[in-house]
Amino acid sequence: MRVLVVEDETSLAEIVRSGLVDEGFAVDVEHSGVDGLWAATENPYDVIILDVMLPGMSGYEVCRQLRERDVWTPVLMLTAKDGEYDQVDALDLGADDYLTKPFSFLVLVARLRALVRRGAPVRPVVLVAGDLSVDPARRQVARGSTQIKVTAREFALLEFLMRHRGDVVSKRAIINNVWDANFDGDPNIVEVYVGYLRKKIDQPFGRTAIQTERGVGYRLAADGG
């Protein structure tokens, strides 16, 4: 079982490397994001241990570029203690699991073996409605060949609508899935974000993909409008 460890703290990297070797893993170590990205794209690994804070290129960027290059090796990211946003960002960018520092070596080994058993994830399917496409893996939106920049919340809303394209979805369903079931703010926030999306994916292209079903909810046209 071959593991790549990308960690700039040399003492920690050596402890992890030595321990994994004792557990029967073959281990390569890199100490910067740039070198880690090169190693991960040039060599086959069963799993990658990737620190968030790295010189040259952050672990976030390494993970993002790996997925962008269709490298689907399972990634376990090492995040800051109590770094809630670190963990969310790691998973959003394509990491498969995370551990917070300091961590138990036994837990690390168990997580690695679980990831290897699971294998490399299947690349998420690009969602398409006419010439409108949403790529969940790369978090990209496009009309034909034109890339469209959206915020994280706009992307989440559009992805939800695309996964239910052709169907009417209620405002409550949108809030539960794009915000959360405990959201107690103004439900009209949905209308606000639908408006933001229309200005980006519809109006510049003369389309009406996102349709309002008054009193019911919204529908994204199956043909992309």
Number of strands: 12
Q: What CATH first level of the largest domain would be assigned?
A: Alpha Beta
Order of adjacent strands in the largest pleated sheet:
2-1-3-4-5
Report the average pLDDT across residues: 86
The gross shape turns out to be: elongated
- Report helical residue fraction: 40-55%
Computed over alpha carbons, the radius of gyration is 21 Å
Annotation field: number of helices: 8
Structural class: alpha/beta
CATH architecture of the largest domain: 3-Layer(aba) Sandwich
- The CATH homology group name of the largest domain: Response regulator
How would a crystallographer describe the biggest sheet? 5 strands, parallel
State the domain count. 2
Task: Tell me the span between the first and last alpha carbons.
Answer: 49 Å
Low-pLDDT runs: none
Notes on the structure:
The radius of gyration is 21 Å and the shape is elongated. The relative contact order is 0.10. The chain contains 8 helices and 12 strands. It starts with a strand and ends in a 5-residue tail after the last strand. It has 225 residues and is of the alpha/beta class. It has 2 domains: 2-118, Response regulator (Rossmann fold, 3-Layer(aba) Sandwich), CATH 3.40.50.2300; 127-220, Winged helix-like DNA-binding domain superfamily/Winged helix DNA-binding domain (Arc Repressor Mutant, subunit A), CATH 1.10.10.
What's a quick, concise take on this entry?
Helix content is 40%, strand content 22%.
Protein topology:
Blueprint: E1 2-6, H1 10-22, E2 26-30, H2 33-42, E3 47-51, H3 59-68, E4 75-79, H4 84-92, E5 97-100, H5 105-118, E6 127-129, E7 132-135, E8 140-143, E9 146-148, H6 152-163, E10 168-170, H7 171-178, H8 189-202, E11 210-213, E12 217-220
Parallel strand pairs: 1-2, 1-3, 3-4, 4-5
Antiparallel strand pairs: 6-7, 7-8, 8-9, 10-12, 11-12
